[in-house]
Design goal:
The protein is mainly β. It has a single domain, classed as Tachylectin-2, Chain A (5 Propeller). Helices cover 4% and strands 35% of the residues. The strands form six sheets. A four-stranded antiparallel beta sheet has the order 1-22-21-20. A four-stranded antiparallel beta sheet has the order 2-3-4-5, with no helix packed on it. Strands 6-7-8-9 form a four-stranded antiparallel beta sheet, with no helix packed on it. InterPro entries: Phytase-like_dom (IPR027372).
Length: 392
């Protein structure tokens, strides 16, 4: 991701070498477009599992859209963060499990390595790593004695991959920032955010919660020079104006927050953010969504947000970049009509492929979401979108 940020932040000619077939990072674009246009579609079936892994889903209840539980293996599901490896493959963060802490103790937290193959509308699963704490850096009791992390320990929702291959991951149960090496081993104790306490931490510590459930670090951006992280909360902290979200600056070198804080204002307090990534040192792409799916999905948008606050209202400046419910599809990719919609409850991944192309992925909340077809568990869909204007 930082490689793309450096290109966008710098001057001169943008030069990228891309393979436009097979396991390409995106399919070929249609040339100049006047409106956001679908250029690639790929789908990973909902019932995709890690071969030979441990059973999972023994605590899952409710409407599973016809998918029998429990599962013989760990599902490859719930994409909540993405990092571009620059070679046509991506490291994608699976969500915490099955929607809450109580039913996710047998879901092993994992970074999946994937490659979209737009020529066949498919996604190849190439492997991945489980997240673990072998050094005992988490100071409270974990679910498993072997210190493999589960969805009952952390709710991982956002990811940044460093040049050294390590992962910075945003959690919602703290909320915490977590730093793992390339093998998925925790490198430091979870880093809390002063004054912001999720209900799961409140229950464990007895401290009063200041944040709603599942409202922690949904987005995680990185400065182009790689020094700073910008975790964005999904929910409003107690005492802040309704629908206002905090974006804090974290110094990776110092291992602490700098005290700088910005504010993102939701279009409606009922909305939530799905992801936040850097474009350059001042601007971010932020997914904002309503809670609907299928016929009730109305508001699914990507904004370009600028921390320079040119109108001096104390908020990130916002410009609509893409309406995900109204994407031009002149080639009828994926078997859809000339207008493509992304009608999922949770859309939690955006990545910049070049100055005029982004990719977006949904979190399918397996097996619960059915935004594409009523009564059928959603697949993990992966789309690329050509933009009418350069991000530079």
């Amino acid at each position: 991701m930082r490689k793309i940020n450096k290109i966008l932040a710098g001057a001169g000619v943008l030069t990228l070498t891309l393979t436009l077939a097979g396991n390409a990072s995106y399919a070929g674009g249609p040339g100049k477009v006047t409106t956001p246009t679908l250029t690639g579609f790929a789908s990973l079936p909902a019932t995709t599992f890690v071969p030979g892994s441990e059973p999972s889903g023994t605590l899952v209840t409710g409407n599973t859209n016809g998918v029998p539980v429990p599962f013989a293996d760990q599902p490859v599901q719930g994409f909540s963060g993405i990092a571009d490896n620059g070679d046509g493959t991506f490291d994608v963060l699976s969500d915490n499990g099955y929607g809450n802490q109580a039913n996710s103790a047998d879901f092993l937290l994992r970074v999946q390595r994937l490659a979209p193959a737009f020529a066949t509308n498919t996604v190849d699963v190439l492997g991945g790593v489980h997240l673990t704490d072998p050094r005992g850096l988490v100071p409270w009791k974990l679910t498993r004695e072997d210190r493999v992390l589960t969805g009952a320990d952390f709710d991982v929702e956002s990811i940044v991959k460093g040049d050294d291959g390590s992962y910075w991951i945003g959690d919602e149960f703290g909320p915490y920032l977590l730093h793992f090496d390339r093998a998925g081993r925790l490198l430091a104790a979870p880093a809390p955010l002063d004054g912001v306490i999720a209900p799961e931490t409140a229950t464990r510590t007895g401290v009063t919660a200041t944040l709603g459930g599942s409202k922690g670090f949904e987005g995680l951006a990185e400065s182009p020079d790689g020094r700073y992280l910008y975790p964005l909360l999904e929910g409003t902290v107690t005492g802040d104006p309704a629908g206002r979200l905090r974006l804090n600056e974290f110094d990776k070198r110092a291992g602490r927050y700098t005290g700088k804080r910005y504010a993102y204002q939701l279009e409606s307090p009922a909305n939530a953010i799905g992801d936040a990534i850097s474009v350059d040192r001042n601007r971010f792409l932020i997914i904002e969504r309503d809670n609907g799916q299928g016929a009730t999905a109305v508001f699914k948008k990507i904004y370009l947000a600028d921390k320079r606050d040119r109108n001096h209202d104390g908020l990130l400046d916002k410009i609509l970049l893409v309406d995900l419910m109204n994407i031009a599809n002149p080639r009828k990719l994926g078997g859809f009509g000339t207008t493509f919609t992304f009608p999922f409850q949770t859309i939690e991944d955006v990545v910049i492929l070049d100055e005029k192309t982004i990719a977006v992925l949904n979190d399918n909340n397996f097996p619960f979401s059915n935004g594409r077809t009523p009564g059928v568990a959603d697949n993990n869909e992966w789309i690329t979108i050509a933009l009418p204007h350069s991000l530079r």
